[in-house]
Amino acid sequence: MPRLAPFALGFLVAAGFGAAAAQPNAPDATPVTMVCPETLAGYTSLVCACPAAATAAGSVWGSDVYTDDSAICRAALHAGMIDAGGGRIWERAAPGRDSYPALDRNGVSSGTWGSWARSIAFAPVDQADEAALHPGPPLCPENAAGRAMGETLTCSCTAEATAAGLVWGTGPYTADSAICRAALHAGAIRATGGIVHFTLVAGQNRYRANERHGVTTAIWDSYPLGYRFTR
Question: Quick check: 193 and 171 in contact, CB under 8 A?
Answer without folding.
Answer: no
